Amino acid sequence: MHEQLSFFLNDAGSRGFQDVPHDPYATVEKDHGRIEQQEYRITPDIDWFEERPDRPVLESFGMVVSHRTVDYKPMLQKDCSCDCPEHAPFPLPKQRKNRYDIGMQTRNSIPSITGTRILIHGHSFLGDALMTTPFLRELRKLKPASITVIARDAGQEVYRRQDSVDSVISGRTVQRGFYHTALVLKDTFQEALRAKRLKIPDRISFKGEGTSMLLTRAVRRPHSHGIRRYFELLDLIPPEILEYSFPLSRVDRKEAHDLTGKRQLVSLAPCSTDRAKRWPAEFYITLCRRLKKSFPKYTIALLGTEEESPICGEIAERAGLLDLSGRTTLGGLAAVLEKSRLFISGDTGPMHLASMFPATALLSLFGATDPALCGPPNPAAQIIHKPEGMSAISPGEVIEKAVTLLKRK
């Protein structure tokens, strides 16, 4: 069955779908240095398809072509989607417009959460995952039977540390028909489609191009900080005090102590997965040299992932700093931030972690991204924001604020 459908789609695609009735649309997603363009072509042309008693009844099937650019390197992916159980379903009714209109009438209804099994489609990036933790705490108060989160990378570690979460999975093997409600916090077409394919009755997320038809409740995405955004999905009132959650263990603090000893720390995270969020390396070098000269009692440490080690290593070598990039676990990194007197960074995951610790002065640098939507929720944090870009933030501005913050310690 899959071979026949794939042959038909490849043949139609080679001819630009000429003479093949189809419904095309496209989506574009941009975040964290990634641009992904997806082209969808759904066709109800199934008269040629051989029907057999052992096969499900098809109404339509389709193809997704994905163009992904990461650090300016394009990649191409193609998927065939159909209604057969061997390949995850892509069910579309014969008259999409009528079905879509019917769905719109039910999207204001909020399903009961008490006693249900909930699947959270969570974030994999550190900062994005931390922003969801206050919502998860309030969700637990509604007494669901269980809360399971799908996430990868740093997001997995964030969710594993939450008392509000029962289990965290990578999403490779998820039991169909097991969960009652899907909360798609990572609001992409792929995640909404996954919830649909898993046969979850209630699927809730924010409205997006191409996603609303896959949801049972589609909420307009509010123009608010990420830490407040997700409460809108269930019409919950956010608590007055909103704080991230990332509990530290004795092992985390021991790791930080083994790496830094009794040093008084100033720490920085000079890298970001999104190049537009990086302050120039030369500016960091100028900043660190000045801080070392003015405050010799402090050790300046650079934090980052193993992939960020080349940039951190160059800055550390030229300015004479302690390079911890690629040497910490996520918990160990958080513990280093906890014992730092000052932390300086752009819009990064470690910046969000650092905002949790009251004793750590925080100086955040923002360019094109809006701190009102993704800045540190700590009201004591100092922010320098230049919408024209990170290069517009001069070393002198950062040095002045950093010196002021350290003089208060």
Provide the fold topology.
Layout: H1 2-14, E1 23-31, E2 34-43, E3 61-70, E4 73-81, H2 96-104, E5 117-121, H3 126-140, E6 146-150, H4 153-160, E7 167-169, E8 181-184, H5 189-197, E9 202-206, E10 217-219, H6 226-229, H7 250-260, E11 264-269, H8 281-294, E12 298-302, H9 309-319, E13 322-323, H10 330-339, E14 340-345, H11 349-354, E15 361-366, H12 371-374, E16 382-385, H13 395-407
Parallel strand pairs: 5-6, 5-8, 6-7, 8-9, 9-10, 11-12, 11-14, 12-13, 14-15, 15-16
Antiparallel strand pairs: 1-2, 2-3, 3-4
Helix pairs in contact: 3-4, 7-10, 8-9, 8-13
Describe this structure in words.
The chain has 13 helices and 16 strands. The protein is an alpha/beta fold. It folds into 3 domains: 2-92, no CATH class; 117-234, 3-Layer(aba) Sandwich (Rossmann fold); 250-407, Rossmann fold (3-Layer(aba) Sandwich), CATH 3.40.50. The strands form 3 sheets. A 6-stranded parallel β-sheet has the order 7-6-5-8-9-10, sandwiched between helices. Helix 3 (126-140) packs parallel to helix 4 (153-160), helix 7 packs across helix 10 and helix 8 (281-294) runs parallel beside helix 13 (395-407). Residues 72-108 have low confidence and may be disordered.
Quickly describe the structure:
The protein is α/β, with parallel strands linked by helices.
